[in-house]
User: What shape does this take?
Amino acid sequence: MSNLARFREIDSLRGLAVLLMVMVHAAATWNPHNSAQSTWIAYLVAGLGGLAAPLFVTIFGWGLVRSKSTTNGNIIKATILLLLQLLVNLFSPHLFDPLTPGILSLFALLILIKPLIVNMANNNISFLVFSISIFLIYGLSSFIYNIQGTSDWDSRVSTNNLTILVSHLFLTGTYPLFPWITFAVVGAFLGSSITEGGKTLPRNNTTLLLIIIGMSYCLVSLILANEEGSVWAHPTKGAYLNFFPANIGFMIGSMTGVLIFWLIIQELQISLFEYCGRLSLTIYLLHFIPLTLLSNIENERYWSVMEASLAVVIYTTAWLLFAFVWNRLQWLTIEALIRKLSSG
Assistant: This one.
């Protein structure tokens, strides 16, 4: 398949990922704290939002292993992504410090270590060693308190000195290299082995077994959490699935969700999110601006949960429509700028 050809389900998955990120960021911004949070809407948004970044990083890994960029091109891309991360932080001072590492700085790191990721994706022994290493590090983190940082948001975005900045990049930030590299390696593994018929995710017994194991873990842990009276899944207080920091339960549950989404979009050939996928970086960068400007509107107008939910739906849908319209102006996107600057 030529470099100009596109895998439409990959664009759709990338588009779905960025829309889920828009949704969860909007929900976090327009969150009426004086209203009850234990609603089915809150759980639905949290559940879908929790899959946004895993899906985004997995698809990024898929594209990384198939990219033909040169070493110089990759360095330029990584530099641009780091500058864009700074721009995102400046757009959202209510959420981040100017130098807070985030998902774009994670992408920059992944690009810089692309040879290592490609090796792990193409070499079964390297992939096995990597998988064992991930579980060993998680086992180690069970004995060394805070190796992945605390669940406190302020401490995860604070960058008071260079030591904290480096720690956030690799272990203790919002999207540190460990354990998020796991999603990128899995994506690269899938990208290095397109199946017969051009399927990007094998529809076989192995895929089905992994989904069953993941769903079984989620079901059993949910039952245990109910019996214990603990919080099953939460951004910072999850007993079994915790996002900040990402624990082993979250990794299992989110990877299962990624496989399910991937299989559904591939097999049903869903193309609704395709244009969003082609503009995913542009949408990700721009969507913070209105959120910052309107970050206090729910407090000023005393929104209820339903009103806030409606605002989130409208805001997310607006970016879907934006992608349909702006797709005609592909030259006027962040993606086009990066391609132009890194192709020299």
